[in-house]
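User: Run a structure prediction on this.
Assistant: Running it now.
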Amino acid sequence: MRKAIAVMNTKGGVGKSTLVLALAETLSAKFGKNVLVIDADAQASVSLMLVSAGSLYRLQAEGATIVDFLVAAVLKKEAVDWHRFVTAGVSDVQEARSVYLIPSDMQLTLFEREVALEQALIQLRASIADLLRQLRDAFDIVLIDCPPGLSVVTESWLREADFHISPVVPDHLSVYALEVFSYFKGRNPEMGFAESLGVLINMKDMESAADADYERRLRGNADNRCFAQTLPRTLSLQHATLLSATERPYDTKYPGETAAALRAICEELLGRASAGTAADVA
């Protein structure tokens, strides 16, 4: 089954990492899924939402990040056991015990330079493809938190993942970023690309007429395949980025309308992914 999903927008500030966190914890806590989060962003934002700063520094020092995996597999051409890069017991949600993480490191930027210098793009794509092939057998869902921009590493994730989701804030710049991404996706189709699961309207101010107008524009474009559920801008989602020192119930971290929206989004995500896989079989 196809289950590797890249979360990507060429523009920053669209709540991408927070969305990955919330989806992972909801899929685990409310749907019983084994979820692996791959932090493919050098800023390591989602890593710091799932583990403490001290734990992340330790993992980086131990060479247990996605950067260390890629250096070994791509630059050193070593056979690498992916298991040692996966960290269990992440998340501060009591019910989300089946969320796992491959953390990131700021050294990812330097790795990208080395790939260019060594002309190792083919090896990079092959290594990412092989990693995802193995991970599909071990997890129900793999969420890849991609950085904004279109580096060679991000392009490789997008070409080797099964699906991608585009979170977008309902404003002018985010709508334009979708056009940039669509143009990029249309280039070199022979190289393959993840199938779009759709645009997810994120961080909407439910009281804003301007946000409502941009949402109408986004939904008016059938190519966007917008998710039916909009994720509203709420204090609970803003606070969700701060890892708690102690575990807390899911409904405490994501109360009320936030939990309802996340559950609806996850149901639609699973449905769309399943439909995409079924179409392949047919």
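The two ends are 13 Å apart (CA to CA).
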